[in-house]
Amino acid sequence: MEKIMLAVNAVDLDKNSLELACSLAKMSNSVLTGLFLENLAKDKELVIKNVYEGTYIGLEVDRTSSEYTKKNAEIEANIEVFNQTCQKNGVRSNVQRDEERPVAEVIGESRYADLLISDGGLHFKKAMRHIPSAIARRILRNVACPVIVSTGPVQEIREMVFAYDGSASAMFAIKQFTYLFPEFSSHKLCVVNVNDREGAIIMVPDQLKEWLEAHYTSFVFEELHGKREGIFLDYLAEKKNAIIIMGAYGRSRVSRLLRTVAADLYVDKIALPFFVAHQ
After folding, report:
1. Are residue 102 and residue 228 in the same domain, yes or no?
2. Which among 125, 110, 130 has a CA at the least distance from the CA of 41?
3. For range 80-102, the mean pLDDT
4. How many domains are there within the chain?
5. How far is residue 254's CA from residue 258's CA, in Å, rounded to a whole number?
């Protein structure tokens, strides 16, 4: 892996996402690009000007106002925190400020990145901290590279939880994670399936076992019994220092184990990073 992008609110920098991004960039020796997102559209005001051709009427941001000056100072301070944090961790980094179309910018830039890390509560309105936010959900549905959603403080990752439901989407996710992070090959991997049908037997393909043996030194299979959303949520609540690996979000072939509504529930309730890969 060579390029990791971190998408953050330029005014409200999420320190947890930054620490996670620096940790993974350092481990993989990747360049970390900070995408500092702004939404200037809401700051624009009606402007009437006399110009050579006549009268100009449009919407513009008053960059001389005290409000804009204060906001710009906050952004510059956050960029300095980003740069200092990267420097402290020995991470190569660069910064981009995107002012006009933040979500479109993230999606466009993701085509040229190996991994995107996003604050699960990414927003542009004060006092809004729903996880995942509407912006985070839009990014998850349309991003062109794997994503890690940061939902809270992260210490050292020591375990991976792979939500496996037998689908191609789930298998694609574990492959993407493995290829991006070979450094985790010696960490514990839990392959989890939820059996919500009484008396049913879930068969684990021999091919999956062989593939895992070729890439990981330690892994276990765990089968949970009960209602999918509830039992898996309880299972994740017991985990610490782990990352959750899941398949497609909000696409036509969403993982049967982690449907969009269920995935929102997990991300909202569990303070662990989630790795999401689309096929």
Report:
1. no
2. 125
3. 92
4. 2
5. 7
> Over the stretch 241-266, which tens digit does the pLDDT of each residue have?
899 998 865 443 334 444 444 455 55
The one-letter code for the residue type at 195 is N
CA of 145: how far to CAs of 4, 40, 140, 276, in Å?
10, 26, 10, 9
Peptide bond before residue 132 is cis, with ω within 30 degrees of 0 = yes
Residue 107 resides in a domain: yes
CB 184 within 8 A of CB 215: no
C-beta of residue 30 within 8 angstroms of C-beta of residue 2: yes
Q: What Å distances lie between residue 127 and 26, 27, 75, 177, CA to CA?
A: 32, 34, 18, 33
* Distance in angstroms (rounded) separating the CA atoms of residues 119 and 148: 9
Containing structural domain, residue 166 = 159-276
Structure tokens at 274: 């989630």
* Segment 212-238, tens digit of pLDDT: 999 999 999 998 887 766 788 888 888
At 210 the pLDDT is: 96
Tens of pLDDT, residue by residue over 136-174, are 778 888 889 999 988 878 778 999 999 888 888 889 999
- Compute the Cα dihedral for 59, 63, 67, 70 and give only its sign: positive
* Residues facing residue 59 across a β-bridge: 46
Within this chain, do residues 27 and 10 fall inside the same structural domain, yes or no? yes
Residue 275 near residue 173, CB atoms below 8 Å: yes
Summarize pLDDT for 180-208 with one digit per residue, the tens: 999 999 999 999 987 776 655 667 889 99
pTM: 0.83
Sheet holding 274-276, edge to edge: 93-98, 31-37, 3-9, 115-119, 147-150, 274-276, 242-246, 159-163, 188-195, 219-225
Considering the domain boundaries, does residue 44 fall inside one?
A: no
